[in-house]
Specification:
Elements lengths: L2 E5 L11 H15 L3 E7 L10 E11 L2 E12 L2 E7 L1 H4 L6 E2 L2 E2 L3 H20 L3 E5 L5 H9 L10 E6 L7 E2 L3 H4 L13 E2 L2 E3 H8 L2 E4 L2 H6 L10 H6 L4 E3 L27 H13 L11 E8 L12 H6 L3 E8 L1 H13 L4 E5 L3 H10 L2 E4 L9 H7 L4 E4 L2 H6 L6 E3 L4 H16 L1 H12 L5 H16 L2
Bound molecules: adenosine-5'-diphosphate (ADP) and alpha-D-glucopyranose.
Length: about 475
């Protein structure tokens, strides 16, 4: 059975800020069902101390640039998967994962270098994997260090490296001088390696060092090879096209299924949709709306508020959307300007728009269930999970045709627009509202979406085939 060690900065339910965590929380167990033994290495952030976790290595020294960093390793076995946690309080016992009050920590390069090196120690001394599968820039130093520091190490030299890009918009780019703090020498700091216009670019280094590069949908795999979506790495990605592929994420229907969801006031399924009306009423009441809105269409948003998510399109058309009689309920947090867009809309239209700023998993589930439609007008979207959840919850999504949104939504289950413009979004929302008023047609649309199956098994099967291909087994 091939052994894979995954390295990532988030995994649900331990540490989550976005979809990366959903993937790492579910994919390893799904791989097991495909005959792949997967383990995961994560940072031990503040407050992460799940029941059953055990310290298995008291003092693992990590040396970088002649400096010794002390770490300890904890282990939790869950669904037959080993989750290792790198405990380095100096680096990870902090308010946020990557930032505090919107400011990235100044030592993120070093934090994730120590993390990646500790993960390599777990590979060398405990797990002995056949494949190391690193996710996003936070884990990109694992293949880079493995290639440059341990080329002849008997536990690592035969290992194949897979690197997955979950979001090319976050590359882990740091001032070039920082390389000295990471012990990256001039042979690696080259345009063919981790150097990028004088800076250190960890994602670039990961893409170069890996044997196979994947991203999280087939359309995004094509898009990132274009100047429009390549964030400056499109040339490199074109050069690596022969080892680049897109494997669509799955979703975990144990967590996201209205028939069994314990976070909802009522459950429902294809055959019995009654519970959805109860969820809808509960959502409206929780957000402080009265009976005057009960018959109006409800559009839901659950999102990181980041430029990527496209809500700047909503700003100029907010008044026109409200004039259609829409109730808009948004949950999210993130960049101040994006938060302001929703804050401003709700101030001006308190009777129609309510926003919950922050992170709230229970409310995320209630919005998926209680809304009539779900809005994701993303500028770009590597995969996107919420639109897939909303299909299952009978909440047809309104999406821009990009990345995973393009791959998972069609005109029979949702509403798509191509041009990135407020007019195109407004037109599509209006078209969705026309459809919503046709109750029979709408029910049919809901049912089609609820019947779709995006469970992890299909994606896990593709990853398993990729690993086996690399290992020649
Ligand atoms: P991304 O990873 O780019 O943020 P995805 O759609 O892949 O986008 O995944 C987002 C995940 O994070 C979903 O599980 C979604 O429910 C969750 N999420 C995002 N923002 C919030 C929030 N404010 N509160 C609760 N859950 C959230
Ligand atoms: C990133 C992307 C999102 C994707 C998630 C999981 O956060 O923005 O589209 O679904 O990773 O792969």
């Amino acid at each position: 059975m091939p052994k894979v060690l995954m390295i990532a900065s988030e995994a649900a339910p331990f540490a989550k800020s976005g979809g990366l965590a959903d993937v790492l929380g579910a994919l390893p167990a799904a791989l097991r069902r495909q005959g792949v033994e997967a383990s995961v290495v994560l940072p031990k952030y503040r407050g992460v101390h799940p029941a059953g976790i055990e310290k298995i290595w008291d003092d693992l020294p990590v040396w970088i640039n002649n400096f010794e960093h002390h770490t300890a390793i904890w282990l939790l076995r869950r669904d037959q998967v080993n989750f290792y946690f790198v405990d380095a309080p100096w680096f990870f016992d902090r308010d946020g994962f990557y930032a505090s009050y919107g400011n990235d920590y100044g030592d993120n390069h070093l934090r994730f270098a120590v993390f990646s090196l500790a993960a390599l120690s777990i590979a060398r001394q405990i797990e002995h994997p056949d494949v190391i599968h690193s996710h996003d820039w936070q884990a990109a130093l694992a293949p880079i260090y493995a290639r440059t520091w341990f080329p002849a190490d008997p536990a690592l030299s035969h290992v194949k490296h897979v690197f997955t890009i979950h979001n090319l918009g976050y590359q882990g780019r740091f001032a070039g001088e920082r390389r000295h703090e990471l012990g990256i020498d001039d042979r690696t700091f080259t345009p063919e390696g981790v150097e990028y216009f004088g800076d250190l670019n960890l994602m670039k280094g990961g893409i170069v060092a890996a044997d196979a590069v994947t991203t999280v949908s087939p359309t995004y795999a094509r898009e990132i090879q274009t100047a429009e979506h390549g964030f400056g790495l499109d040339g490199l990605l074109r050069a690596r096209a022969s080892v680049l592929s897109g494997i669509l994420n799955g979703v975990d229907y144990n967590d996201w299924n209205p028939a069994t969801d314990k976070l909802l006031p009522a459950n429902y399924d294809l055959a019995n949709l009654g519970g959805k009306a109860i969820c809808r009423r509960a959502l409206l009441e929780e957000m402080g709306f009265g009976p005057e809105v009960w018959d109006r269409p409800v559009i839901g948003v659950v999102s990181r508020f980041a430029e990527q998510k496209g809500f700047d399109l909503l700003q100029p058309i907010g008044d026109a959307v409200v004039a259609e009689g829409v109730t808009l309920i948004a949950l999210g947090n993130g960049e101040p300007h994006q938060e302001w867009i929703f804050h401003n809309l709700s101030e001006r239209h308190h009777g129609n728009v309510r926003v919950w700023h922050g992170y709230n998993n229970r409310l995320a589930h209630l919005i998926e269930a209680g809304a009539d439609m779900f809005l994701m007008p993303s500028r770009y979207e590597p995969c996107g999970l919420n639109q897939i959840y909303s299909l299952k919850y009978g909440t047809p999504p309104i999406v821009r045709a990009t990345g995973g949104l393009e791959d998972t939504i069609d005109e029979s289950t949702g509403f798509k627009f191509g041009e990135y413009s407020p007019e195109a979004l407004l037109h599509t929302i209006r078209w969705a509202l026309v459809n919503w008023r046709d109750r029979e047609g709408w029910l049919q649309r809901m049912r089609l979406g609820m019947g779709k199956d995006y469970s992890w098994d299909r994606s896990a099967c593709e990853y398993a085939a990729l690993y086996r291909g690399l290992l020649g087994t």
